[in-house]
Every structure is written in C-alpha cells, then in structure tokens.
Amino acid sequence: MRYYENDYMPFLNAMDDDALWYGPAEGQFLQGRETMIKTWQAEDHPLRFTMGNLKVRHASAHPSFCNVMLTCTVVTHYPDGHDLSVFQRLLLCWCERKVTNANGEAHKAPRILVCHISNPHGKHEDDVIYPINFSQIYAENNAQPQRGERIHFHGLDRSDYFYLSDSIYWIEAAGGGKHSVLHTVNGETEVMATVASLEKRYAHLFLRCHQSYLVNPHFLRNIRRFRVTLTDGTVLPIPEKKYTAFKSAVMRVLKH
C-alpha cells in the first residue's frame, strides 16, 4: 500500500540482497536490492497512484517459504488530469533469511526473493527503468476505463454482468461463433451473445476489424497492414479487403 503512495523504501528494504524484480513492461528486469534502491532513488516522476480491490492468496511449501499472489486495481493519475486503471497481478516469493542488525546480532527475517508483475504491457523504446516514460507508454490510450456507457451481458455462468464500455479492450467470437469472450481491464468474461449481435447493438462503441473480433477504438495503439495492435499488447488481424474501410472508421470515431 505504501509503495503505491510513492513511499517505496519499506518495500525495497524487504527485498533479499540478491532478489529478482520483473517489472510491468516487457524486458524490465532488475537483480539485487542495492540495484533496485539506486534505480528508484534515481527516478523522478509526477505520477500519483491509487490502489484498491486488493485480494491476497498464498501457498506455502515449507515453513520457511511462502508464495503470495496479489491482485488489485491500480489507477495512475497523470498531471494533466488523465486517469488510467489497470488490473495488476503480482507474485511475491518470500523466504526466511539470516540477517545481521546494526548491533551485529544475527536473526531470521522474512525477505522477498522474487517480485513478478505478470501482466506486462508493451515496452516503450526509451524506457530503461520503471516508471520512466510510464505516461508515454499509456498516454497513447485516450480511453478512461472508469467511464463510458454501461452495458449488460448475460454470462455463460448464468450471471449478469455490467461493464462500462471503456473497460472492454476487445471482443472475441467463441464457441463456434455462438457466444463471445470479453477481454477487459479486469480479465476475461464469456457471455451469451454473438459478435454479430454485439456489433449491431453497439456499433457506436466497437468496430469490427475481423469476422471474429470487435475492438474498442479508444484502446488502439497502432494500425498497420494488415493488423491492429491494442494498448494491452494484443495483435489482431485485419483482412486485406477490410483494411481501408476499418482504418477510415477508426479515424471517424477518434475525431469525435
């Protein structure tokens, strides 16, 4: 909790001397507590974070070891007033280590061996340490996931789901086209609706780039021949015959 309040030293002090840290961007890797401390101390950014919906689960294979999985929603607050929510997954591997205090006394203390943030986004070419260029990575996304039109879906598990449209990255045909999978900021949900029916009902919210896919145009990172890349790193195909029409449709939507 204090880490996301930009009070990061308690978290880093809990790291083992030779701990491994895998960050939220592809290729972000640090080894050793001193390396992490120097990295964070060299970082200066204006970002604020809010963390909520924290869930913690653990599994212990030995009295001295424990694996902890945390899931939470993290909202990044940008200086220009733009907010972005992401669903964060962290794996922390803890162990007991023999450490020496300031008085030279040895004792056992819990330390983090591995911190793995397992839902990575695409790495910006200028990104060297987290969270340098964090805003550049995510600012390409103009959507604000806590807003949008509320949509009701019937789930395959007989549940009713209510999603804000700006929390849905893309929609995929499933079950031989008889139902769909929503890919959202909080994971995947299977619903009892076809891609065709969703396209007809929500043409003002989603665009069809392929027979099997609808995309939220506000989550597009780039379009090239013949594919589209979303801000979560997903790459979807665009048939050659639909490429020009799809690109024009995206430009119309994003101009409004």
In short:
The protein has 256 residues and is α+β, with helices and mostly antiparallel strands.
Overall description:
The structure is a single chain. The protein is of the alpha+beta class and 256 residues long. It has two domains: 3-138, Roll (Nuclear Transport Factor 2, Chain: A); 150-255, LytTr DNA-binding domain (OB fold (Dihydrolipoamide Acetyltransferase, E2P), Beta Barrel). It is built from five helices and 16 strands. The strands form four sheets. The chain has a six-stranded mixed beta sheet. A hairpin with a 5-residue loop joins strand 5 and strand 6 (106-117). The two termini are 38 Å apart. The relative contact order is 0.11.
| CATH C-level label of the largest domain | Alpha Beta
Q: How much is the radius of gyration in Å?
A: 21 Å
According to DSSP, the number of beta strands is 16
Strand content: over 45%
Euclidean distance between termini CA atoms: 38 Å
How would you spell out the order of helices and strands?
A: HEEHEEEEHEEEEEHEEEEEH
Number of helices: 5
CATH topology term of the largest domain: Nuclear Transport Factor 2, Chain: A
- The CATH architecture term of the largest domain is Roll
This entry's quaternary arrangement is: single chain
* Strand numbers in spatial order across the main sheet: 2-1-6-5-4-3
Largest sheet: 6 strands, mixed
List keywords for this structure.
alpha+beta; Nuclear Transport Factor 2, Chain: A; OB fold (Dihydrolipoamide Acetyltransferase, E2P); 2 domains; six-stranded mixed sheet; five-stranded antiparallel sheet; 45% strand
